[in-house]
Amino acid sequence: MTQAALDEIVRDRIQDTLSIKLRDDHAPVPEKADPSHAAADAEIETTDEEREGFMIVRAIAAKIAPIERITITDAKSYCAILMNDNNRRPICRLYFNSPTTKNIGLFNAEKVETKVRVDGPANLYAHSDAIEAVVRSHLTA
After folding, report:
1. Which of 47, 123, 125, 139 is 20 to 30 A from 32 (CA-CA)?
2. Which residue, 82, 93, 77, is CA-closest to 127?
3. Radius of gyration of the chain (CA)
4. Is this structure's pTM higher than 0.85?
């Protein structure tokens, strides 16, 4: 009985190993990441100020559009807040990466950017009219 139990255990382990191996053979091969692209992404960090600014812009835009449509995309020099995660529908850009100066890039209906100096995320409320106007323009476009 002991020998039969051991044989069964060995057989089960062999089958498990073979089935895992067969599943792995049929799995799609992951693409190799471009090391230069990965290094560039590693340098991009969304700061707490950028997250706070995003939440403020999202709250302002929530009066007009569903908040799920307001998204954030961080880049090396600025943090973009977009409508529908579409680069062609920018709401504003947060230039909060500099330790000395902070700016917000406000867009008009023609997608022309105007940079305005701010002290931090709390100052974004002062520009709520411009943010609401660009969100409205994206909804009608």
Report:
1. 47
2. 93
3. 26
4. no
Tokens at 90, concatenated? 């920018």
- What is the separation, in whole angstroms, between the first and last Cα of the chain? 78
User: What residues pair up with 95 in beta bridges, in sequence order?
Assistant: 103
The full 3-state SS of 6-56, as one line of letters, equals HHHHHHHHHHHHHHHHHHHHHCCCCCCCCHHHHHHHHHCCCCHHHHHHHHH
CA 26 vs CA 23, 29, 125: distances in Å: 5, 9, 54
Task: Report helix, strand or coil for 75.
Answer: coil
CA dihedral angle for residue 47, residue 51, residue 52, residue 56, rounded to 10 degrees = 150
- Tens of pLDDT, residue by residue over 14-28, are 776 666 544 444 444
- Give the separation between CA 15 and CA 123, rounded to whole angstroms: 64
